[in-house]
Amino acid sequence: MKIDQNVKRSRRLRKKLYVNEYTVYGFEVSLNFKEMDESALDPFLDEIVNFAESRNLMIAGGGGIDVFAIFISSSDRYGSATEEDRHALSNWLKEKSLIKDVELGDLVDANYSF
Fold first, then answer.
1. Residue 62 CA neighbour count, 13 Å, CB half
2. Treating both helix axes as pointing N-terminal to C-terminal, what angle do 83-94 and 41-54 enclose, rounded to 10 degrees?
3. Each residue's pLDDT tens digit, 19-64
């Protein structure tokens, strides 16, 4: 669903609809693992969740040992993920030896970009 951000609305309605100054941003991450055992997936999931929580982010999505796709956004109600968060996660993932390749999407409107 797309919503017109340029329509004049009251502050209360803008906040309720998460538009204009209340827009929440996040980004997609997809990665492929190298040859990996199923038992190594749970520890990796714990690590990535701990990393996200340390930056006040939350993760939605998942996958398996072949393909893994998630969406990252802020855990604050009207907070957004930032470019700094994108770069920090990218660097953190590149340090992991069990990851073959990583793709990070641009910051997008978490409520209306899909």
1. 6
2. 150
3. 999 999 999 999 999 887 888 888 999 999 999 999 999 999 988 8
- Which band of pLDDT confidence, cut at 50, 70 and 90, is reported for residue 1? low
- Helix-strand-coil split of the chain, %, nearest 5: 35, 30, 40
Q: Which residue matches tokens 């641009």?
A: 106
Q: 74 in helix, strand or coil? A: strand
- Domains delineated in the chain: 24-109 (3.30.70.1140)
By the 8 A CB rule, do 59 and 72 touch?
yes
- Structure confidence at residue 59 (pLDDT): 96
Report the distance separating Cα 90 and Cα 95, nearest Å.
Answer: 9
Q: Which of 26, 23, 114 is nearest to 70 (CA)?
A: 26
pTM summary value: 0.88
